[in-house]
Design brief:
Layout: E1 5-11, E2 16-23, E3 29-37, H1 53-70, E4 75-82, H2 84-88, H3 92-103, E5 108-109, H4 112-124, E6 132-137, E7 142-148, E8 151-158, H5 162-169, H6 177-192, E9 204-207, H7 209-222, E10 233-234, H8 236-247, H9 251-254, H10 268-282, E11 287-290, H11 294-303, H12 315-326, H13 331-350, H14 360-369, H15 382-391, H16 400-410, H17 415-422, H18 431-449, E12 458-466, E13 469-476, H19 481-498, E14 502-508
Organism: Halobacillus trueperi
Pfam families: Ppx-GppA, Ppx-GppA_III
InterPro entries: ATPase_NBD, Exopolyphosphatase, GppA/Ppx_hydrolase, Ppx_GppA_C, Ppx_GppA_N
């Protein structure tokens, strides 16, 4: 099957990027190439509003180099978009002409509303957040949006970015305390000018390089053990700590901070102050990073052009389907195990066994889609592969803690291996939470053993109490010996979690 590649060039005020995507079997786009150039075009926008000859030359030289990289791929489509600096340039018509003449690119200049909209679209199509404020700080502008029930309600573009704030408020590369204080007062005043930003008490979702660097610094300082930046959550105290920490460093030390790009060292403080001031204005419930931004939003719009809506119906379901496709999972087998797990879970719940809550079922169902997917790599060490793949792969629609819980359930093998996987994250959970995850994992493992030959032999199960012990009657069609053998072997994990003896009874289903 021929591979489909798509490319987008994002001409920003601080950086320019070429990103090339491969369209996966499931239809989603996977990034395969990401080329960055720190052009800082904003510094070449003159007082008369014209982009200087030097600035245009930097733009053209960078685009030509991007074109050479892109030509090594059989592209289905190439998109070139530009944001604040080109949008604000008085000679934008000449710039567009020069770009077309020297590169052949039809550069599209996004309006401030479009720039904000694409950021919002990327967030709602790649995170579980249904109501929030997005903020995307570039070199020359800052876009904010408010969405509720995943629908865009408000958007605004402020005519300042990390580069312009540095130029306007800092005399040198690094600010004084007074300059930082002046910047904070200015930003709060700007944010409070929009009534819809005030005291929303919703998540603040950061987009772009500044937000990404902020999260990388936080993860490095905390020696964060889980992989991935997308959907990582920080608190107000985290933002304040990092801002104060960075402020104490000289430029030489700042450039060596783990997680901070050297080319952003001189603009990270203005960017951090934007996030912190906006967090306070919004009374945000947390700061979440979205690694998906403007470029992804542009393609999301195109991918959904024939759907009648630009919103994916369910972000997590899309991601689960992507996993099923990537690891060639047996859908019929999954659905049957879910059916058995549903019966077992609700019969335990109805009897008050295992301290199960109705909402726990959603976690069991989620993990059942990907239970033991590590078999795709190696059957003997499938549990290890399952945990590693799920714990270290971004799954759109799942926050980091939710992803970890799913990885622990879906990789359950036995108590010893479970504790081994859990150990780096042990302090993240209360003792009762750890027990619950182990119980749900052992329940899934038992239900998978009931369809060990993928023939849907065990059609249903019924649970009954025999004093303190449990009896599970399993109604089967056809030969059930392999399932009986596996179930007898695997029930011990469930018995240990429930602290009950389980007696299994396999019978032929007469119905």
């Amino acid at each position: 099957m021929a591979r489909s590649y798509y490319a987008i060039i994002d001409v920003g005020s601080n950086t320019m990027r070429l990103v090339i995507y491969l369209r996966e079997k499931g239809g989603r786009l996977r990034e395969v190439e990401n080329v960055k150039a720190v052009a800082r075009l904003r510094n070449h926008l003159m007082d008369d509003g014209l982009l200087s000859t030097e600035g245009i030359q930097i733009l053209l030289t960078t685009l030509k180099s991007f074109k050479q990289v892109a030509e090594s791929y059989p592209l289905e489509e190439m998109v070139c978009v530009a944001t604040a600096t080109i949008r604000q340039a008085q000679n934008q018509a000449e710039i567009i002409h020069q770009v077309s003449e020297h590169t052949g690119f039809d550069m599209r200049i996004l309006s401030d509303h479009e720039e904000a909209y694409y950021g919002y679209l990327a967030v709602v199509n790649s995170t579980p957040v249904t109501e929030g404020i997005t903020v995307d700080i570039g070199g020359g502008s800052t876009e904010v949006t408010y969405f509720k029930d995943r629908e865009l309600i408000e958007s605004h573009s402020f005519p300042f970015g990390a580069l312009t704030l540095k130029q306007d408020f800092f005399k040198k590369d690094l600010p004084t305390e007074e300059e930082m204080s002046d910047l904070r007062h200015y930003l709060i005043e700007q944010f409070q000018s929009l009534p819809w930003l005030k005291k929303k008490n919703v998540p603040l979702i950061g987009i772009g390089g500044g937000a990404r660097n902020l999260v990388q610094i936080d993860q490095n300082l905390k020696e964060y053990p889980l992989a991935g930046l997308h959907q990582y959550k920080m608190k107000d105290s985290d933002l304040a700590f990092i801002k104060n920490y960075l402020f104490t460093l000289n430029m030489k030390k700042l450039q060596k901070v783990e997680g901070l790009s050297k080319d952003r060292a001189d603009i990270i403080l203005p960017a951090t102050e934007v996030f912190h001031s906006l967090y306070d204005s919004v009374h945000a419930s947390g700061f979440i990073l979205s690694r998906k931004g403007l470029r992804d939003g542009v393609f999301f719009e195109q991918l959904t052009s024939d759907m009648g809506t630009a919103l994916f119906p369910n972000v997590l379901e899309e991601s689960i389907q992507e996993l099923i496709s990537d690891y060639e999972l047996n859908v019929k087998h999954i659905q049957h195990v879910q059916h058995l797990a549903h019966d077992l879970f609700h019969q335990l719940h109805d009897r008050g066994i295992g301290s199960l809550r109705k909402r726990d079922w959603q976690e069991v169902k989620r993990a059942s889609y990907v239970f033991n997917l590590g078999e795709y790599i190696d059957n003997e060490s499938s549990s290890q592969h399952t945990f590693y793949l799920l714990a270290n792969r971004t799954i759109d629609g799942l926050m980091h803690m939710e992803r970890l819980r799913m990885a622990l359930m879906a990789s359950f093998k036995n108590k010893t291996v479970f504790k081994q996987f859990l150990d780096p994250y042990k302090q993240w959970f209360l003792k009762d939470e750890r027990k619950k995850i182990r119980l749900l994992g052992s329940m899934l493992k038992f239900c998978y053993s009931l369809d060990s030959t993928r023939r849907q032999t065990v059609e249903k199960l019924e649970l009954s109490n025999d004093g303190e012990d449990l009896r599970v009657t399993l109604y089967c069609k056809g030969a059930y010996m392999p399932e009986e053998y596996q179930a007898e072997k695997q029930k011990k994990h469930l018995e240990k979690s429930l602290k009950k003896t389980i007696e299994l009874s396999f019978v032929e289903n007469k119905k």
